[in-house]
Amino acid sequence: MNAHEIDYEIHGEEMQFVEIELDPQEAVIAESGSFMMMDDGIKMETIFGDGSQKNQGFFGKILGAGKRILTGESMFMTAFYNNLTGKRKVSFASPYPGKIIPIDLSEAGGKFICQKDAFLCAAKGVSIGIEFSKRLGRGLFGGEGFIMQKLEGDGMAFIHAGGNMYERTLEVGEILRVDTGCIVGFTQNVDYDIEFVGGIKNSIFGGEGLFFAKLQGPGKVYIQSLPFSRLADRVIASAPQAGGRDKGEGSILGGIGNLLDGDN
Question: What is the 3-state secondary structure (H, E, C) of the chain?
Answer without folding.
Answer: CCCCCCEEEEECCCECEEEEEECCCCEEEECCCCEEEECCCEEEEEEECCCCCCCCHHHHHHHHHHHHHHCCCCCEEEEEEECCCCCEEEEEECCCCEEEEEEECCCCCCEEEECCCCEEEEECCCEEEEEECCCHHHHHHCCCCCEEEEEECCCEEEEEEECCEEEEEECCCCEEEEEHHHEEEEECCCEEEEEECCCHHHHHHCCCCCEEEEEECCEEEEEECCCHHHHHHHHHHHCCCCCCCCCCCCCCCCHHHHHHCCCC
